[in-house]
């Protein structure tokens, strides 16, 4: 059976670190914590789980801190998490089982990351990350911000899920780091351009975000999933700025990089629905229901866009087309995913009254 070191970097995480470590402690053989300057109870909480606590002076460089943490590990494999991540009980059990059966020739194991959720706890942002890596390969982190782990070799995909449990609002820390890099005259890589645009987007600086998404796409050197994501963010920027023509162009721009994704089909459906072009909206929403992505695919996905949402919108479209029985069928499909959604239940009552009258 292989052994696992959990390596984390933390700062002022007293509200989440205990839950994180409790969720994974049973599955790992060593816990390594690198504190980058906590002033709260983080370290005292951590020491109830491990004595392997190290300090690293924060230099506005996430990769440097993570690489330092990785160098402290002593076990066969390294697992990394953030302080607001957890392993649910079933995923912790899966990790324990994986340790017992993992072929030592494996260099990295990817896991799902459920990053954001709707009000019913269903994931609305989901993607894969290399989470468990062989220590002797000395894989390195790169990037001052939105760092990435450069992994190669024998990589397998697992069905283990890491769950993000953010309780704090997004700060402007990352945005400030990027702005400091610009002031120092540092040349942005394509990856930097993309993530700086994301920070601008998150802070509702839509016009400037558009500039940097376009700069990123113009390089032609980005990861295809980031290029597709940029088209989605551009569409949202233009939507927020009240420019529907450029919003539509950004949606179709995504088709240059891959076949239509459910997320873009739903955007197109919404575009035509708002213009009372119900047949066109039906076409795109129907296509969205058929575009479930494989669990082995990487990149950001929103399961909402291929499950309940297009069915709910199809219900609206067919109701306005006077096809109430079809509208009811799609509402029931939406209800199978969200049985307690007030809007879906209201549709159910309304359509049943209409159908009973007819």
From TrEMBL:
Keyword Magnesium assigned: no
Keywords: Transferase
Residue ranges constituting the Glycosyltransferase 2-like domain according to the UniProt record: 5-146
Domain of life: Bacteria
GO molecular function, one term: transferase activity
Cited SMART domains: TPR (SM00028)
Protein name: Glycosyltransferase
């Amino acid at each position: 059976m292989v052994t696992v070191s959990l390596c984390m970097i933390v700062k002022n995480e007293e509200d989440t670190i205990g839950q994180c470590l409790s969720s994974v402690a049973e599955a790992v053989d060593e816990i390594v914590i690198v504190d980058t300057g906590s002033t709260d109870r983080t370290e005292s909480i951590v020491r109830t789980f491990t004595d392997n606590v190290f300090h690293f002076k924060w230099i506005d460089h996430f990769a440097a801190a993570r690489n330092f943490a990785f160098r402290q590990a002593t076990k066969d494999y390294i697992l990394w998490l953030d302080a607001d991540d957890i392993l649910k009980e079933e995923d912790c059990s899966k990790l324990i089982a994986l340790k017992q059966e993992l072929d030592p020739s494996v260099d990295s194991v990817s896991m799902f990351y459920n990053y954001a959720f709707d009000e019913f706890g269903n994931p609305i942002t989901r993607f894969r990350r290399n989470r468990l890596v062989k220590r002797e390969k000395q894989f390195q982190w790169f990037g001052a911000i939105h760092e990435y782990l450069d992994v190669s070799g024998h990589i397998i995909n697992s069905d283990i899920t890491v769950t993000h449990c953010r309780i704090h609002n997004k700060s402007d820390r990352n945005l400030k780091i990027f702005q400091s890099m610009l002031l120092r005259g540092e040349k942005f890589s394509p990856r930097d351009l993309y993530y700086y645009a994301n920070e601008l987007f998150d802070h509702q600086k839509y016009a400037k975000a558009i500039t940097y998404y376009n700069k990123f796409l113009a390089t032609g050197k980005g990861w295809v999933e980031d290029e597709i994501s940029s088209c989605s963010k551009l569409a949202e920027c233009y939507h927020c700025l009240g420019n529907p023509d450029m919003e539509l162009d950004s949606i179709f721009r995504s088709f240059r990089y891959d076949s239509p994704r459910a997320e873009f089909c739903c955007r197109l459906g919404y575009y035509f629905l708002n213009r009372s072009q119900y047949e066109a909206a039906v076409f795109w929403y129907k296509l969205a229901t058929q575009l479930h992505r494989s669990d082995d695919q990487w990149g950001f996905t929103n399961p909402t866009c291929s499950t309940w949402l297009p069915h709910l919108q199809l219900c609206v479209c067919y109701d306005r087309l006077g096809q109430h029985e079809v509208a009811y069928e799609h509402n029931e499909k939406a209800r199978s995913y969200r049985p307690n959604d007030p809007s879906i239940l209201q549709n159910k009552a309304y359509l049943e009254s209409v159908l009973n009258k007819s």
